[in-house]
UniProtKB/TrEMBL annotation:
Name of the featured protein: DNA primase
Family to which this protein belongs: Belongs to the DnaG primase family.
HAMAP family per the UniProt record, alphabetical: DNA_primase_DnaG
Swiss-Prot/TrEMBL catalytic activity: ssDNA + n NTP = ssDNA/pppN(pN)n-1 hybrid + (n-1) diphosphate
Quaternary state and interactors: Monomer. Interacts with DnaB.
Protein purpose: RNA polymerase that catalyzes the synthesis of short RNA molecules used as primers for DNA polymerase during DNA replication.
NCBIfam families, per database record: dnaG
UniProt note: domains: Contains an N-terminal zinc-binding domain, a central core domain that contains the primase activity, and a C-terminal DnaB-binding domain.
Keywords from the named record: DNA replication, DNA-binding, DNA-directed RNA polymerase, Magnesium, Metal-binding, Nucleotidyltransferase, Primosome, Transcription, Transferase, Zinc, Zinc-finger
Enzyme Commission identifier(s): 2.7.7.101
Cofactor binding note: Binds 1 zinc ion per monomer.
Species this chain originates from: Lapidilactobacillus achengensis
Amino acid sequence: MATKIPESYIDMVRSKTNIVDLIGQTVQLHKSGKNLFGLCPFHEERTPSFSVNEEKQIFHCFSCHRGGNVFKFLMELEQISFPEAVIKVAEFSDLPLPENVVAANQQDQHSETRQLQKLYQDAQVLYSHILTKTQVGEGALTYLHQREMTDEAISEFGLGYAPQQANVLLDFLTSRQVSRELLVRSGLFAQREDGTLIDRFRDRVMFPIQDQNGNVIAFSGRILSQKEHEPKYLNSPETKLFQKRETLYHFAQARPVIRQEQTAILFEGFMDVITAFRAGVKNGVASMGTSLTSQQLYLLSRAAKKLIVCYDGDDPGQHASAAALQLLKETDFEVGVVSLPEQKDPDEFVKKYGALAFQKQLQDHVQTPIQFTLAQLARRYNLNQDADRLAYVQAALQELVKLPSAVEQDLYLKQVARQGNVDLTALHQEFEGAARQFHRQQRAQQRQTREVAPPTAQQPPTPALSTKLDGAAISERRLLYLAIRQDSLLARLAADDDFHFNNEQIQALFEAWRDYAESAGSHSLSAFVDLLSPDLQNLLMEIEMMEVPDEVSDGEIDDYQRNIIQAKIKQALVAAQQNVQHATEVGDEEAEMVWLNQVLNLKRQLI
């Protein structure tokens, strides 16, 4: 941004913000030893490798190697500049901005991302104003009220109305000097054959779609007066900011409740989420009109341990529930399913039975995945006929053999026996046969997989969580770690003109810390991070997350230095031996003798 933020203000924001509080809004953190761990927000993973050190006010991912302080976290997460991150952290901590920074921030057009976010926000404000404050929006507002939509829900979800009149949004944004290029990239407009732009959304109730940080990134519009060849719902096209597979409707607003209850409820559509909200269920989200994706589940996994699927009770909704359960098998969620009675969707159920009945349904009628599967099987067959009952039993057994728990198997065998009206003892015998056949098939598939798979040596290596280091490299990292904490050691190393770290990046970190420590004012690791390039930041965070005692003996420090020096001598020795070999091959006896003497001198230094 044009105006430089004072260093004193940056220091104040950093010192008054707990990195755990800010990161905890995005990542579900759990204490383990000195640090807190969670799933990394920068890449998908099953095992937590993202670590936060509250004492040092830093974070580091042992898998993707990103790391830094509170500002760096937001810069990485939201792809914003350092000044933008400072402002966002200040707002998070309720710290007032200096007047000159406020003015510069209002004029800031730093990035296309920020410009698009402002454009979408302006569009949302316009649509909301038209819906709630103008005569043009009265029909849409009446429609929502008839759907029992309260003003609280309309405000919570930022609903609006795009009128039938041509180019209301285009004229509004053009009057604000928004460039044509940005208008095109926003996806809010369509182009005629002659190249002129027109509003994409007309005569539609507008549902703003937000990213995980609460920024409006797209819209979905529900048509108010159904017209031939017009879709009921029209979504913004995917853009730089909006990817359907990575977006969950209402996630940003629901996340605090999801985190508190450790549970998220997955609905089928926008109106279901809003209906649930009106009924007092505040932890509901929905996918974006597409099948549930692994990216959406990963987003939820950083806030919730339990996921309840509550899709519509009709056949398409139940098929969608079955598909979601199939995907959820590959996750660590505790999974439940709610099938609303009478094939109703949440809106229909709440209208007929009320909010309390809906809450009770979500609390007391949660099925396990196998319960849901058995119920779906039972719906396919006429259990009053012997042939269908036998078919149901056989299909149910094929599902029960997949359960890992013998207790679960026994529980549901009893249920199947009652449902199919068959003898439990006979059913157990049938189950044992089905289980043996299932396990034989599993073993055969495993053998086939091993036979088809290429030799291990030809398979790509599994990425390591951290770089494998030799003794000298470990010594370098530990020595730097201690030099950052011990002024006497830092001074000793700085005064030794003959000593250098072999790793150029570690040497650069050492010199940067030395200069920083000699500067006026107070010093902290978190503030030092802001002075470094991204690659040095990540390396420093990796070093800072090492398990190293802050106090070690002088003898151990001497060992670290000796390892570093000897590693340098060994490198020189290898180079000298290579030069000897080269001189011998070309017949240069004089050069050969020079390099042989060099080899002998280096070997003496290693003794």
